[in-house]
Write a structure and sequence with these properties.
Number of helices: 14
Distance between the termini: 75 Å
Protein name: WAT1-related protein
Shape: globular
Order of helices and strands: HHHHHHEHHHHHHEHH
Pfam family, one: EamA
Membrane topology: Multi-pass membrane protein
Strand order of the largest sheet: 1-2
Family: Belongs to the drug/metabolite transporter (DMT) superfamily. Plant drug/metabolite exporter (P-DME) (TC 2.A.7.4) family.
Biased composition (Basic and acidic residues): 350-361
Largest sheet: 2 strands, antiparallel
Radius of gyration: 31 Å
């Protein structure tokens, strides 16, 4: 029964992370639509976390009011760092890198997150490398396969593959405002910002694993994270964007994007990520990041009239294979941890202690026999010297 429960937990975690990436792919598409409509992405990030906080704070207050432990300074610090690294600062750094470099380069850098998370988690002893075990080799191999598949997906196109043709492009429908021209800047700075953003995202996952161990209330913790992210995001956007027309929301794609990204993406999916991090660890969560490329490509071909290429197909197959390898390795690792230690695996000191105890028992039994024999001999002697 315990084994079946572990298998069920592993399947549940996998399904939840696939759903998370599907939702995030929708956010990615809507970001494109909002940017095409002329919306400043810093303002979008600020609104996203404001909507997310407005949704998740009351939900967490009522759902976990009876089981919520006392909030400590340690947990508050974890939430503040998560709101900074995984929220406003991390996302704004990646968007700034996108402006200074290119969309292709940013997508490629994001795919390094599983590797960065794995290295940091091993260094902090949140993840066991276990290179000499089959499970450890599977985790390392799966992580490298995922990164390789994502790079293949990003940089290699190959011939065009026509699976379906919708001839439908939402960008032509939703674009009512002139889009802002891309800024030009320092390429080296863009590279640095992208790397820092990936490190921040990895730290966000790792800090959540630490928080889950001391504060097992994912809704309440997510509410704190999104609240701090909304503060940081709003202050950052106000400092960078003083054009108040950019803050206007109407009944258009801008409002739909910030509502969907905030309520569903940050308010609900952040809770799911926190739960899966507590169940399977930060590395397991990060390995699903390259899956976002596949879903974005599929949705983009359906609603943005984007093309699919052979590189997309080959990279997608490699990414999916990597997920299976990492999931298998993680399940084997958890199964090994939960198995009882066999009796023959006791330490040498315990064995020596048992042998010494056996020798003492044998000596005690022999002494008792000698005493019994001497006593019996005395009785015989008395009987001989004093016959009746």
């Amino acid at each position: 029964m315990a084994t079946m429960s572990k298998v069920g937990d592993g399947l549940k975690a996998t399904i939840l992370m696939v759903v998370v990436q599907v939702i995030f792919s929708g956010i990615n598409i809507m970001y494109k639509l909002a940017a095409t409509d002329g919306m400043d992405l810093r303002v979008l990030v600020a609104y996203r976390f404001l909507f997310g906080a407005a949704f998740i704070v009351p939900v967490a207050f009522f759902l976990e009011r009876k089981k919520r432990p006392k909030l400590t300074w340690k947990v508050s610090l974890f939430a503040l760092l998560c709101g900074l690294f995984g929220g406003a600062l991390g996302q704004n750094l990646m968007l700034e890198s996108l402006v200074l470099t290119s969309a292709t380069f940013s997508a490629a850098m994001v795919n390094l997150i599983p590797g960065i998370t794995f290295i940091v988690a091993v260094c902090l002893r949140l993840e066991n490398l276990g290179w000499h075990t089959l499970a450890g080799k599977a985790k390392v191999l799966g992580t490298l396969m995922g990164i390789g598949g994502a790079m293949l997906f990003t940089f290699y196109k190959g011939p065009n593959i026509t699976i379906w043709e919708t001839n439908f492009n939402l960008m032509k429908i939703t674009s009512h405002h002139p889009s802002h021209a891309a800024e030009t800047g320092n390429l080296a700075l863009g590279v640095i910002l992208a790397i820092v953003s990936c490190v921040f995202y990895s730290l966000w996952l790792i800090i959540q694993a630490k928080a889950a161990a001391v504060y097992p209330c994912p809704q309440s913790f997510t509410a704190l994270v999104v609240f701090f992210a909304s503060l940081f995001g709003t202050v950052s956007a106000l400092c960078m964007q003083r054009d108040w027309s950019q803050w206007k929301l109407g009944w258009d794609i801008r409002l739909l994007t910030v509502a969907y990204a905030g309520i569903v993406g940050s308010g609900i999916m952040f809770v799911v990520i926190a739960q899966v991090v507590g169940m399977r660890g930060p590395v397991f969560v990060s390995v699903f990041n390259p899956l976002l490329l596949i879903f974005v490509a599929i949705v983009g071909s359906l609603v943005l009239d984007e093309k699919l290429y052979l590189g997309s197909l080959l990279g997608g197959i490699l990414i999916i294979a990597a997920l299976f390898v990492v999931s298998w390795g993680k399940s084997k690792e958890i199964k090994k941890i939960t198995q009882p230690v066999p009796e023959e695996d006791t330490s040498i000191e315990d064995q020596e202690r048992e042998k010494s105890s056996d020798r003492n028992n044998d000596q005690l039994v022999q002494e008792q026999k000698n005493v019994s024999i001497e006593s019996h001999a005395d009785q015989i002697e008395i009987t001989i010297t004093n016959p009746k």
